[in-house]
């Protein structure tokens, strides 16, 4: 019994000694941390953070963020147009579009789930998260626990979205340069295309898994082809339609001189099969553009954000000009 009490007494004394040493060490560390922390806080407040007013109120963000997450499919492209490589993005296709493959080689892909993978976002240790409010307002509380989160308003024009992001990042002049450069590129491309096909008509077709979609000039994609690149639409395409889903039997009613054809996902076997079946029909073979070898295969994942991002638009301009030059030398 005496031995047991002696053991207990020694154990208690050992615990007290360890606790005392730990407390002393903690006090010393706290003192050092307060000194360091006060210096860092002063530096941060004076030169490393700034206050911005957002839909969710006034928040502090880094003046020069180094690890940015851009949610939605287009925000990562806006960020890269402003020379910022995001650390994580949402993606529709398994691979990045070719124009982002190299710069985004080390960028985490999180898929396009409506609710982001919070653990994945946290893993990238962001210092800023930027997202459109219509997409991420429901997730704001969770996101803002990970990093300062800026929600931006929905816009009808991607140029305004780019300007909103640029304002947050103090890159307004760069955003305007991106817009101006794209306008200049469009004009050069439009002049080249006009020299090649003049007043001949063009129809833009997307072959999807369950439908064939014809794009008119009132939607982003058709607007890009017909208004920004100046290629003439079919006169009988309904003026009030932005796009039409048609059957193969109806397609000959829209018999353009030139067909721009995009497989919505060029790696999808069902879409490939659907297009091969179209090619085998007499209806397809008798189209004016098919007879004259004026069918231009374009797109894939690179065309996903056409009309919604300057980078996608730049790629599409080069793509269209290249395929038309190949057949209209």
TrEMBL record:
<feature type="coiled-coil region">
    <location>
        <begin position="155"/>
        <end position="185"/>
    </location>
</feature>
<comment type="similarity">
    <text>Belongs to the bacterial solute-binding protein 8 family.</text>
</comment>
<feature type="signal peptide">
    <location>
        <begin position="1"/>
        <end position="23"/>
    </location>
</feature>
<dbReference type="InterPro" id="IPR051313">
    <property type="entry name" value="Bact_iron-sidero_bind"/>
</dbReference>
<feature type="region of interest" description="Disordered">
    <location>
        <begin position="28"/>
        <end position="48"/>
    </location>
</feature>
<keyword id="KW-0175">Coiled coil</keyword>
<keyword id="KW-0732">Signal</keyword>
<dbReference type="Pfam" id="PF01497">
    <property type="entry name" value="Peripla_BP_2"/>
</dbReference>
<dbReference type="InterPro" id="IPR002491">
    <property type="entry name" value="ABC_transptr_periplasmic_BD"/>
</dbReference>
<feature type="domain" description="Fe/B12 periplasmic-binding">
    <location>
        <begin position="67"/>
        <end position="328"/>
    </location>
</feature>
<protein>
    <submittedName>
        <fullName>Iron complex transport system substrate-binding protein</fullName>
    </submittedName>
</protein>
<keyword id="KW-0813">Transport</keyword>
<feature type="compositionally biased region" description="Polar residues">
    <location>
        <begin position="31"/>
        <end position="48"/>
    </location>
</feature>
